[in-house]
Structure formats: structure tokens, C-alpha cells
Amino acid sequence: MFDFFKREKKPNPDASKLLASILVVYPSVQSVSYDSKGDMLELSFALSGKFSQNDFENFLRHVAESVEAFHYIEGLGGAKIELNVEGVFGTCFLNVRRDMSTLTCRELSLLTELAENYFGENLIEDYEGEMPDEDYIMAQEDYLEQCLNNMRQLRIEGRLVGVREQERVVVYAR
User: What are the domain boundaries of the chain?
Assistant: First the structure.
């Protein structure tokens, strides 16, 4: 028979806030997911245009060197980062996977800045009209840092995905 009382899996509120905040603060991030198995956060950037395999290899090398230098300056050891690209022509996705144990808001800003500077107009950013004012962004970044700290202290099971849906941000559990 039907189980009308069966509950759907609901995302953890702290984890949902983290994913939603990333999408609000960084309009170039098209989707973000968290996987508890590897305690990894994945950011996806959408790109339009034609790129060669060499373009992506150069970018991935540039990101790896920049993040390594950042980790050295910040004194972060043992950080895990994985980069990959899906597709080559038309619209493609650049995926950055990063472990949560040492991830900071400043590193998220670095990763988005690297993508914005390297791909420029080919990076698809999702915002309407004017960008939010600086005070709003700074407050969101502070909130995002709190969410990152909370996630380190919690044990969240499963997989969460945050995506943009027109003018809204949606977070769901998988």
C-alpha cells in the first residue's frame, strides 16, 4: 500500500545555509554540492565558447599553483583539491572539489577570482542587473565563514546539492 507518512530526506539546515550562501556570494558558481563520504565540497562553473584541451590544462595548472601558494602562505597542509572539466565545445563545466577540513571563505574567493580572470566573458555568471553593494557582500562572506566553521563541527550524512533556479537558490538532499 501507500505510505503517506513516509518522510522525504530533508537537508541539514546548517549545510543548506552553507550551499545557499556560496551561490549568493559567488554568482559565477552555478552549482555546489557536498558529499559526506569524502567530506568534499564541489563547485561547478559554467563556461560558454570553444576551448582547447590545452586551454583547460593551462588553467588547471594555474589553479593548482595558485592554490598551492595560497596554502603555503596560510600554513595549510594536507589540503585536497581536485579539478576536472566536463565537455569541450559549447557549454562546459569546470568542477572544483575541495575537502572541507581546511577550506576557507578566502580560498573560495580565490578560486572564483581565478576562474573569472582566466575565462572572462566566457564564464557564465548568474545575476540580474547590478551587483549587490560591498557591505552586503562582506556580511554574506562573514556568514559564509560561520557556516564553514559549523560544517567542520557537524557530521552531515548523505549528499546535498545547491543550484540556481531562475532568481532563486534551491538546496536538496540526494
Answer: 13-160
